[in-house]
Amino acid sequence: MSLRYALLGLLADEAGSGYELTKKFERSLDRYAWHAKHNQVYQELNRLAADGLAEVVEEGARGRKTYAITEAGRADLRQWLLNPPRNPVVRNEFVLRLFLLFALDPKEARVVLAEYAAAVQRDLDALTALVESADVDPADGVLPDPLAFGHLAAGFGLHMLPASRDWAHWAIAQIDNWTEEGEEKSEAEDGARGA
Amino acid sequence: MSLRYALLGLLADEAGSGYELTKKFERSLDRYAWHAKHNQVYQELNRLAADGLAEVVEEGARGRKTYAITEAGRADLRQWLLNPPRNPVVRNEFVLRLFLLFALDPKEARVVLAEYAAAVQRDLDALTALVESADVDPADGVLPDPLAFGHLAAGFGLHMLPASRDWAHWAIAQIDNWTEEGEEKSEAEDGARGA
DNA sequence: AGAAGCATGTAATGAGTTACATGATTTG
DNA sequence: CAAATCATGTAACTCATTACATGCTTCT
Which InterPro entries does the annotation name (chains A, B) (predicted)? Predict the structure, then answer.
């Protein structure tokens, strides 16, 4: 049911067509919260309309339909937000890969971790630039609504990305520390190799 | 295919029966990395055996079968670890809910965030206790293998949980700051209420 | 002997992916 | 007018969940 609520959430922010919602999904939810493809979005929008949680408010060129959330939809979304499922589904291929690194030898694991840290840093730089470009000076009294869609999510990224980068660096240090212990000798035989 | 690699990873750590692997899955991967139910585990083990990536090495009481990873399985796992899928799947009902909080009014969102922060803190306390009880003094020279299964994962939790707790507190502060701006008056009318 | 938990599975359904299909509009 | 991108969908398949089913072993 999560896809359903993800879409209701996007619709609660503003009405949109399947195409627009798919794009918004990719920009806002796809990376950290929920993943879905365009055809799944279209199908779920049909179901939401059939169940009275959303409705078509406009039909445009080449079959374009704009959906809006209904009162029933808002109520349903609100209930879901207030009553969390007790065993939320978590699937993360990134993290899975990182957790299974022990199956590689230390050198290989080190490379994977370094690449991961670099990718996270790139994401963080991009997000920082995005936030700065959109920011309102907090000193001028006209604070942006902190619940505005995207604001909490951006803050989430700004908190979590440095933590996962730091974890990767910590893991690399653990490995380096340990391999030195085990084989003090092999220091010289192997020059630096960039990734 | 992620479930397949999750199981190969667990088997790379040590051989086990479907039941044992299910339990290990729940303890180690379920919360942050990948989620699966027992029947899916059994089915995937059958497929792994059919594909020659795992093999039954022991049959015990009441149909119990112990599986071990094969060389082909190790090679397959290694390839997956070294060649990440470019668009890893991420699904997280927790995060989804948090991203959609804007659909609640500030007071309700605040409560959800406070409960979330408290739950994260409980997880962190439990993990800290677990790590301390299992820890070897790093000063005595006998460092544990940093790639030992669970070590990297535990470190991940120790890095990420504080960050997500801090994010929740930041989000609450944002909301408080903003609602004060908007309605300086309502300060007195509402006493403290514990969650 | 009965209850709790061990241990493995099947069947039906629902959610998600991949591949395919189609046509309109905008941009160069 | 050709290419890119907008825009929506269907069909077949695989992955995942829910509900059901079965029998063993250990503990009380």
Answer: Tscrpt_reg_PadR_C, Tscrpt_reg_PadR_N, WH-like_DNA-bd_sf, WH_DNA-bd_sf
CA nearest neighbour of A91 among B55, B62, B6, B102: B6
Query: What's the pLDDT tens digit per position in B71-83?
Result: 999 999 999 999 8
3-state DSSP call for residue A31? coil
Please tell me the total count of domains within chain B: 2
Rg, Å, chain A Cα set: 22
Interface contact A29-B99, CB threshold 8 A: yes
Q: Please report, rounded to whole angstroms, the spatial distance between the CA atom of protein residue A62 and the C1' atom of nucleotide C23.
A: 8
Taking only the tens place, the pLDDT of each residue in B4-16 is 999 999 999 999 9
Query: Which residue among B62, B82, B102 closes a domain?
Result: B82
Residue position matching structure tokens 């589904």: A89
Is A19 in the same domain as A56?
Answer: yes
In chain A, which residues from 84 to 123 place their CB closer than 7 Å to nucleic acid strand D?
89, 91
List, for residues A123-167, the tens digit of each pLDDT value.
999 999 888 877 655 444 455 666 677 889 999 999 999 999 999
> What is the rounded distance in angstroms from the CA atom of residue B71 to the CA atom of residue B61?
27
Residue B136: give the domain boundaries. 93-187
